[in-house]
Amino acid sequence: MNFIINAVVLLVLMPIPLFLFATLCNPAEVRKRGAKQMLKEFARAAFSAGLSLLNAVCTRPFTFLCNLPLIKKNGDDTPILMVHGLYHNKAAWLIMRYRLNLAGYSNLHTWQYGSFITSYPELVLELRDAIEKLHYKSNKKIILIGHSLGGLLSCGATQAPETESMCAGLISLGTPYRGSILASIAIGRLGRSLHPASGLFKGENRIAYPQDIPKTAIISPMDELVLPWTNLEPSSGNWNIIHSHALGHVAMLYSREVSGLIVENIRKIQKA
User: Fold this and answer.
1) The dihedral of CA 226, 228, 230, 231: what is its sign?
2) Are 156 and 207 in contact (CB under 8 A)?
3) CA distance 112 to 134
4) Phi, psi torsion values for 224, nearest 5 degrees
């Protein structure tokens, strides 16, 4: 019992050093917000990050729950495809899937990939194939929701005009649009490719964004994994950028506020 309690406490406290490092990497933002606001945001984000890490570890084996039937409340069958972030799996979307279903959406799909034996270009091609299959199966345009790397993969897939034409819009959560310096210590080539100096963000072959569909980036003002925080904002294009309250990187997946923002933007996409 003591071992379990100690493990839980360790998981909850583990993100704190990352948040301390994050504040050191963002001196201008720290000065701009002031000590009182920073302390409040630090406490809120670190607490949410600790709980979300515990949640992610506990739910990771239960990917089969993403296949459970959904409630069809209002007949809305807009296909929504959710793409998880680095080192996670589709269990990341369990709570978000439930909340989107309560909001009336029942045509929800999750796409899963491995984080250690593949590369960004390979995953983009696989995601394009998944989008194409879902589009022809539903005969409707798809709304993409991507967390972290999932947002970058969604951008890479839809930068191809033929794939973009199959999609109605894109919503991202905590996506490192200009990379993260923490990628220098990432495990695996996919993780290391997310460094700001990588070819994904520099040169002729850098990641581009879809041009003609609505694009929304939801950002936490206190992200412990995407550093510096300015790298959370897309470098170009017509984006709708929304700042949530201070949340940990993974905590965005479990936030009631963020799920509400997603529902709000799905409805805007549907009306566009």
Assistant:
1) negative
2) yes
3) 14
4) -90, -10
Distance CA 65, CA 94 (A): 7
pTM reported for the whole predicted model: 0.94
The pLDDT tens digits of the residues spanning 215-250 come to 999 999 999 999 999 999 998 779 999 999 999 999
Question: Has residue 167 got a pLDDT over 50?
Answer: yes
The contacts of residue 213 (CB under 8 Å, 6+ apart) are 158, 164, 167, 168, 169, 170
